[in-house]
Amino acid sequence: MSEAFPEVRTESLQLARPDGTPQRGFLLRVVSGPDAGKILGVDGSQARPLHIGTSRSADLVLRDPAVSRRHLTLDLGPGGLRVRDAGSTNGLRLGSHRVLDAFLEGGETLGLGQTTLQVEALGTPARMVVAASAGVGRIVGASAAMRRIYPVLGDLARSKAPLLLEGEAGVGKELFAETIHERGGPERPFVVFQAYGKDDARAEAELFGEGGAWAEATGGTLLVDEPCDLSPALQLRLLRALEVKSPLRLMATSRRSVDGEVEHGRLREDLALELSTSRLEIPPLRDRDGDVALLAAHFYRSLDDERTLPALTVRRFEAYGWPGNVRELRAAVRRFHATGADALEPRETFAESGHHEDPTTLYRRVLASDLALPQARAVITDDFDRRYVERVLARHAGNVTRAAASSGLARRYFQILKSKRGL
């Protein structure tokens, strides 16, 4: 079971057009193609049009090779849901017609490459869940990335179909699964089975044995964490159990690419298809703009109602990349509460995100962090050294001896510098 956090206040907001009439939200489901089961909600709270394509920065990322990086845009306006071809190579189809720009009302089918999207209107009018200060239930987050997910949760809660929740380690997949379960009927059992690190006999006994997870979850929800770690025989047994009339709802979570696991033979394709009837991708914390401060305050408040996190600590938290996501942030807040000292070493604070931004942006963030001069200088120096070593190595095709000579450094010192910068 996931850790119980205090309930978070949310409110419902009815979106309206300029003339005061209610504005509907929409749900787009991938019903065919490599990403079948993925969902994107459009609720009007986004400050910009949403994009669908193969680019990693897209709001709905597709892996269809016939889809362009930025294939189409979506925008909710007075006329309904506006869809526009974003200059794609293979075009955009509305039903059987190719279109460049159209307004949708719900019920339409969009085709892009080998992928088909079903457009659903969320109520008439829709009452969309938006964050008043934090999120939905025990899920905390007010970023655009999270607000796109919230409208989908109620829909998933009403369904009994298998659900696959994907995302990096620490993003909160189990919390999302339990929240969806609770919204569908909290009185029913919610059972988690961890597949990792168990031999075949133990996994079979704990999953299907007398009093095992399957029996315990009857009438409720069984969450299987990392089904790829089950043996082929147990994967087949799980599939067979799903193919008969199941007495429970099955959810699965994975930090890996399920499609990649199928390609490498670690997960049965037929089981992956069954689990992917519905799919929900939880964004990493680095993509949830503004949520670090919100989550840090929430975690700290659960430990101490009388004090707040110092502003400098919050800024340092916001500057860090959080490769361990929400779980790592929660641990850092706990350490700060226990020790009263900054939980992050300044160089580490900037190392993760600094690798992916231009020097000017890093420079500005370091200045805004209020670090002491020696610490700030060390961050900038580390970044310069890494960029310099990368560049000189590339110029000499990775040859350390030639790179060191052109840098005016002894080979041994250059090798140490290279290793310290993780190159």
How are the SSEs placed, and which strands pair?
Blueprint: E1 11-13, E2 25-32, E3 39-42, E4 50-53, E5 60-61, E6 72-77, E7 80-85, E8 92-94, E9 97-99, E10 101-104, E11 109-112, E12 115-122, E13 128-130, E14 135-136, E15 139-140, H1 144-147, H2 150-158, E16 163-166, H3 173-184, E17 190-194, H4 200-208, H5 213-216, E18 221-225, H6 232-243, E19 249-254, H7 258-263, H8 269-275, E20 278-281, H9 291-303, H10 311-319, H11 325-339, H12 346-354, H13 359-368, H14 373-395, H15 400-407, H16 411-420
Parallel strand pairs: 4-5, 16-19, 16-20, 17-18, 18-19
Antiparallel strand pairs: 1-13, 2-3, 2-12, 4-6, 6-7, 7-10, 8-9, 8-11, 11-12, 14-15
The CATH superfamily of the largest domain turns out to be P-loop containing nucleotide triphosphate hydrolases
Provide the domain count: 4
Strand count, sense and barrel status of the largest sheet are: 6 strands, antiparallel
- Rg calc: 24 Å
CATH topology of the largest domain: Rossmann fold
* Structural shape: globular
Percent strand: 15-25%
